[in-house]
Design goal:
The complex is a heterodimer of chains A (624) and B (495).
Chain A (H helix, E strand, L loop, with lengths): L2 H27 L9 E2 L2 E6 L2 E7 L3 E2 L3 H30 L9 H17 L4 H62 L5 H17 L2 E5 L5 E5 L4 E3 L5 E4 L23 E5 L2 E4 L10 H32 E5 L1 E5 L2 E7 L8 E8 L5 E9 L18 E6 L4 H11 L5 E3 L5 E5 L7 E11 L13 E3 L19 H4 E3 L1 H5 L19 H10 L5 E2 L12 E2 L2 H41 L3 H35 L2
Parallel strand pairs in A: 15-16
Antiparallel strand pairs in A: 1-4, 2-3, 5-6, 6-7, 8-9, 9-10, 11-19, 12-13, 13-18, 14-15, 14-19, 17-18, 20-21, 22-23
Chain B lengths: L4 H28 L13 H51 L4 E3 L2 E2 H17 L22 H6 L7 H13 L6 E4 L5 E6 L9 E7 L5 E3 L7 E5 L10 E7 L5 E9 L8 E3 L4 H36 L5 E3 L10 E3 L21 E6 L2 E5 L6 H15 L7 H19 L8 H37 L3 H27 L2 H4 L1
Helix pairs in contact in B: 1-10, 2-3, 2-7, 2-8, 2-9, 3-7, 5-6, 6-7, 6-8, 7-8
The chains are: A alpha+beta (624), B alpha+beta (495).
Chain lengths: 624, 495
């Protein structure tokens, strides 16, 4: 117990107060810094040889609820994904325009039907015909531009994934660097609180991008795993790569087979092993998951809806149904159809009944030229009540007949009366079947003498006939981006009326426009369930304008849901974040009161020193 | 629990930001008058809005169609109404007209008919909004040729007058109406058509006789003929024989010869001679003279009417000649040599050739064509009356020929044969106009209902918006005040 020890204690107290003041100043300075956590000065009684010798200043620490932190990361990950949904879907929604303005694609379709009706009312009016062609061309270009917007958004998603992957790699690197520093500093008992703040920020950034789990190690480092358990970082970060594709169109799609994949994927490389993280389903939350969903699911579906609309409009106008002619061979009766004009994707529609059971079978035989697409799925036609048979027509007639016969029961006999005629007859004397009807659905390519339909819409600048071919890549994929009004019809608008050359149809004849109108407004038309509208067993039925309206309403509902989900989710994550900020952030009032405490402590310790000095002075003056 | 200053100010900022977002949305609502500017914002009402907007667009197209169709039907009805008046005028005229030539060898009625014909042609060539109403689907060609062209033709194209003249020549032949009178054996007279098959002249259809001792028989030869064989038993005074002769237009006339002892015999009589041979010679002479008269009277009128029938078919049929007086058949006139009076669409059944869609699944077939029965009848009969002219030198025959002609035109215009009348065409159109009116008012009601529902759904209620706006403004003011008070509430201020 000496004055010296008192002075030592007082100096340690001064030091502690200074350290405390320093911390208060830093806390106050960072009161408005996002992610800054409040640091507290840790002190302990310094004991030497069983005696207290003052106060020991320890490393500053922070007080963080790690459970809350993990929860926030999960929720912000979800929020980031939903924000991506919301941003993209609201853009799709805005493509449909203002409800009041008749600018949506549905209004354009209805408008085109109205103009077609005007042509039916006055087929002889060039103004009516040109107005209709103009509206049809505008509708086609509206579909083109919506389609290219959708593909543009997919490309944007692709680019955003690329940026996100770069950011993720940087974050992983930052975490790894900070892990090292923290481990070293902890070993020398220096404060690591600020470094932890920085590392948390990096982990937060990463959790907004993807679904991760951060695990604290004993040495103060963290290890990072994907939600699915793939190791992203332990001592060294793995490398994530993304083979960004610079051009994306409607035909680009993701596939787990790298040979078929035409968009980028995220690969995890660790030494010599590499894993396709998209295929392994590593991305469940976070903005990358949102972008992947947009690129591979949501936007392609929106595209499929536009494609189906374009496809149905084109087919409705251009498809002619040609009834078969009666065919008899001995006791066997049936029908024969002419396959000469059939394009790939066109169909033969056959109906037969089992007798006496009376069960009716509807068979749709689809012409394909590429045998690799066979066999066709039952969903190749939108009709749920038919049996779909794909037949390769790219072979001699004998082969075609054999393929058909193999797909049909032996009691329905396939034959080739002559040329390109194909006959279907029942089994005659045995009497176990009756062939009820056979017809072909053929896409007309000419403007006259092929019936009252008209191939108004054609595929692309090459003016290719649109027949819904399934070869290689289905013709319907991306058709909305390629649909255009036939140049031949624009060059001669009277082809909207004149369907026969001998005798030449009169210009006042309303037969063709009325027929086209009837086809487009036919309410029994069915639409493919791959669009997400209707189901395979009960497909959506209705006129093309009602389908267009359904698209608008489905997309608007998706956008509204996404916006609702995003705001609900952001409320959850914001609330958690707020709670975390409140608990770990700086309260200036608190700091000010600490300031007073440290100020007082400093003053008191200084007082002790000055008292000791006085005592020494007294002590020294004794000897004088 | 402590609350960090940062979190506190962040919270404040967020809530003020939210109020400001709401404020700007309300301002937008107030200025645009719409609750939302996108379909997503409509919520559950979006299907309704889409359906109603679509329905309104469709209804407007239907209304456009109805308007055009109404204009066409009403214009057609006006034209048909005028035509009907002309038809009635000509019918009454035909019934009352007497043979009194005024100028150019025509009666007043005929001159009127000429003028009415050109009026009718004008009516049928009615063009409404660049569209011929009476040409069927050929809406761009003037459907009917001018009345001058129709009647007179030009150097290369034969008109109605030429066809009538040729037909008259073919029907009358050498004067006996293509019949031949011979006496192969003494006491017997044979009446025979001059050729078979032949469409011209009188056709022997029936006979009856009260002549005693005389055999009147049909020997079933080809061409058809009738034998009148007198015998030693001569007919007595007052006994008669009549021959029913079919005329080219399908009507029948009867030539009756009565035996008389007077010599010379009057018209329609023959003198009973001393024996069969003399009586037969008298009979033959009397019959020849009766036939010649009949040919100049009823045959020429019927021939004219039939020439008209031939001309007003498609293609027009004309006498296969020259020579015409010995011709036996008709030949189709070609556009190169004959006037084709109707140049419009002649496919299918005339009338109701257009289809107007006036509602979901509601269609109306409408339209009339110049070559449609009731319309063509008026043109034909006006043209017939106008085409014929008389010399005025053969008053007795021409008076009767004129009477026969007007009798036929009156009958045709009266639709005695039960053919379609203009009134029935107009009634049909009237009913369609009625249907259109009903459809129109239905659509208009529908549109106004849809509009009000749409307005309720999409329009922002200004009162509602203003109320919300003012309450938000109060809230924001309060927030600002609290924020400013709170900012004062810091320990810093009190140290």
């Amino acid at each position: 117990m000496t004055l010296y020890s008192a002075i030592g204690s007082a100096i340690s107290g001064l030091n502690a107060s200074q350290a405390g003041l320093d911390l208060v100043s830093r806390n106050i300075a960072n009161a408005g810094t996002a992610g800054y956590t409040r640091k507290t000065q840790q002190v302990s009684n310094n004991v030497a040889g069983g005696e207290g010798i003052g106060v020991q200043t320890l490393a500053a620490t922070r007080n963080v609820d790690t459970f809350l932190q993990a929860q926030i990361r999960t929720e912000t990950g979800k929020s980031a994904k939903l924000d991506v949904y919301n941003a993209f879907l609201s853009r799709i929604n805005s493509m449909f325009g203002v409800p009041d303005s008749e600018s949506s694609v549905a209004s354009s379709v209805t408008g085109m039907l109205g103009d077609l009706q005007a042509v039916a009312t006055s087929p002889d009016s060039p103004a009516a015909r040109q107005t209709f062609l103009n509206t049809a061309a505008n509708l086609a270009s509206q579909l083109n531009s919506m389609s290219s917007n959708l593909q543009g958004m997919r490309l944007e998603a692709e680019q955003n994934i690329s940026t996100a992957v770069d950011t993720a790699n940087k974050s992983l690197q930052t975490i790894a660097d900070l892990n090292n520093q923290i481990a070293q500093r902890r070993a020398t008992n220096v404060s690591v609180a600020d470094l932890q703040d920085q590392r948390d920020a990096a982990v937060d950034t990463l959790s907004k991008l993807m679904d991760i789990k951060a695990v604290q190690r004993d040495d103060g480092t963290v290890a990072v795993f994907t939600g699915g358990g793939q190791l992203l970082l332990d001592k060294q970060p793995v490398n994530l790569t993304f083979d960004e594709h610079t051009s994306i169109d409607a035909t680009s799609s993701y596939s787990i087979d790298p040979a078929k994949r035409t968009v980028g994927t995220i690969t995890l490389r660790n030494g010599t092993t590499s894993v396709d993280l998209v295929a392994s389903g590593a991305f469940r939350t976070g903005s990358i998951a949102g972008y992947l969903d947009m690129r591979d699911r949501v936007l392609p579906q929106a595209q499929a809806q536009l494609d189906e609309l374009a496809s149905q409009m084109a087919l409705a106008m251009s498809t002619e149904t040609k009834a078969g002619v009666t065919e008899t061979a001995g006791l066997a009766t049936g029908y024969s159809v002419d396959t000469t004009d059939m394009l790939s994707g066109n169909t033969i529609n056959l109906t037969y009944t089992d007798t006496p059971a009376g069960t009716q079978h509807k068979i749709t035989i689809v012409k394909v030229m590429d045998p690799t697409v066979l066999p066709l799925a039952a969903t190749a036609t939108s009709n749920p009540n038919d049996t779909v048979i794909g037949i390769n027509f790219n072979q001699p007639m004998a082969g075609i007949l054999a393929d058909m016969q193999a797909a049909l029961p032996p009691s329905v006999v396939v034959g080739n009366p002559s040329g390109n005629l194909i006959s279907f007859v029942d089994d005659g004397a045995a009497g176990t079947t009756d062939v009820n009807a056979a017809s072909t659905s053929v896409t007309s390519t000419g403007l006259t003498d092929t019936g009252t339909g008209l191939p108004l819409f054609v595929d692309g600048n090459g003016q290719k006939a649109y027949s819904g071919s399934l070869d290689n890549l289905p013709q319907s994929v991306g058709f909305a981006g390629r649909i255009t009004v036939s140049k031949a019809i624009i060059a001669d608008d009277t082809s909207l009326v004149i369907y026969n050359t001998t005798p030449k149809t009169l210009i006042g004849d309303d037969t063709r426009p009325n027929d086209l109108l009837a086809r487009l407004t036919d309410s029994t038309r069915t639409y493919s369930a791959t669009t997400g509208i209707g189901s395979t067993s009960t497909p959506f039925n209705g006129s093309v304008d009602s389908f267009a309206r359904r698209i608008v309403s489905v997309q608007a509902a998706a956008s509204q849901n996404a916006s609702d989900d995003a705001s609900a989710q952001s409320m959850v994550s914001d609330a958690l974040q707020e709670k975390f900020n409140s608990e770990t952030g700086v309260n200036i009032d608190n700091e000010m009161s600490n300031l007073i405490i440290f100020q007082n402590a400093y003053a008191a310790n200084a007082r002790v020193i000055s008292t000791v000095k006085e005592l020494f002075d007294v002590l020294l003056s004794i000897g004088r | 629990m402590q609350i960090s200053s940062y979190a506190q100010s962040l919270q404040m900022r967020n809530s003020i930001g939210q109020i400001q977002t709401q404020l700007s949305d309300l301002q937008r609502q107030l200025t645009s008058g719409l609750k939302t500017d996108n379909y997503a914002g409509l919520g559950d009402a979006r299907s309704l809005v889409l359906a109603l907007t679509g329905q309104m667009q469709k209804s407007n197209s239907y209304l456009d169609t109805i308007q055009s169709t109404q204009l066409r039907i009403e214009s057609s009805m006006n034209a048909l109404d005028s035509m009907n008046d002309i038809g009635s005028e000509l019918k009454t005229g035909s019934l009352s007209s007497t043979f009194k030539l005024t100028s150019g060898g025509q009666t007043d009625l005929q001159i009127t008919a000429g003028m009415r014909l050109s009026e009718v042609v004008d009516l049928l060539n009615l063009n409404v909004a660049d569209r011929q109403l009476f040409g069927g689907k050929d809406t761009q060609t003037t459907p009917v040729v001018t009345s001058t062209m129709m009647l007179d033709g030009d150097t290369t194209h034969a008109g109605l007058k030429t066809l009538i003249a040729q037909r008259n020549e073919a029907d009358i032949g050498d004067g006996l109406g293509r019949l031949a009178l011979t006496s192969a054996t003494a006491g017997t007279v044979n009446i025979a058509e001059d050729a078979s098959p032949s469409v011209f002249g009188f056709k022997l259809s029936n006979f009856s006789s009260t002549l005693s001792g005389t055999t009147v028989s049909d020997p079933a030869t080809i061409p058809a003929s009738i034998d009148v064989a007198f015998s030693a038993t001569l007919p007595s005074e007052g006994q008669s024989v009549s021959f029913d002769l079919k005329l080219p237009d399908g009507t029948t006339t009867t030539v009756k010869l009565t035996a008389t002892t007077k010599s010379p015999a009057g018209a329609g009589e023959f003198t009973i001679g001393a024996d069969a041979t003399v009586t037969a010679a008298n009979f033959q002479a009397a019959l020849g003279s009766s036939l010649q008269t009949e040919a100049k009277q009823s045959l020429v009128a019927a021939s004219t009417v039939e020439a008209g029938n031939n001309f007003f078919t498609n293609p027009p049929m004309r006498v296969d000649g020259p020579p015409y007086d010995t011709a036996t058949s008709l030949i189709a006139g070609t556009p190169d040599n004959t006037v084709i009076w109707y140049r419009g669409d002649s496919s299918g059944t005339p009338g109701n050739n257009f289809i107007a869609t006036v509602g979901d699944g509601a269609q109306i077939a409408y339209g009339a064509r110049a070559d449609q029965g009731a319309l063509a009848t008026v043109v034909k009969n006006a043209a017939l009356l106008a085409a014929v002219s008389y010399t005025g030198t053969d008053s007795a025959n021409e008076t009767r020929a004129y009477a026969e002609l007007t009798k036929r035109t009156a009958s045709a215009l009266n639709h005695n044969d039960g053919s379609q009348t203009l009134e029935s065409v107009m009634t049909d159109m009237g009913l369609k106009a009625q249907t259109l009116d009903t459809a129109q008012s239905k659509l208009q009601t529908q549109i106004s209902t849809s509009k009000s529902v749409l307005a309720d759904t999409t329009n922002a209620d200004p009162y509602d918006v203003a109320t919300k706006l003012s309450s938000l403004m109060t809230q924001l003011q309060a927030s600002y005040q609290i924020t400013s008070s709170l900012s004062q509430l810091s320990l810093v201020k009190f140290l």
